[in-house]
Task: structure prediction
Amino acid sequence: MGVRVGQKEKCKMEDVRYFFDSYAVIELLKENPSYARFKDEQITITVFSLAEIYWCFLLEDENTAEKVYEKFKKSVILFGDEILKEAMKFRKQNKKQNLSYADCIGYTYALKHKIIFLTGDKEFSGFKNVEFVK
Result:
């Protein structure tokens, strides 16, 4: 399902403690000291998070973006219609917070799988099941 930073083997969902939103992965890769304690955690993301991560690095350098994409595509989890629909309902209920659909899907996935949603997005700082790290 996902991989630990620096490892290539696949891990089981039982080993997953966190769902990393794109912000968390980017900060980890940019070596933000606040994210250092997560460097050995299994990274789990959706394809939408992968797109956001790729975009961020593509703006800086295409070669780096390609390397990051290849590394983290192994961390992408699949989700079904139920997660997608619940995530969009959650987004609608929290419309005033202007949450991205990618983050809403990740958050909903984390809730359903009883793992912590790791983010630095202030919009999520008050929600349950969130570890907010800046």
The radius of gyration is 14 Å. The longest helix spans residues 81-93.
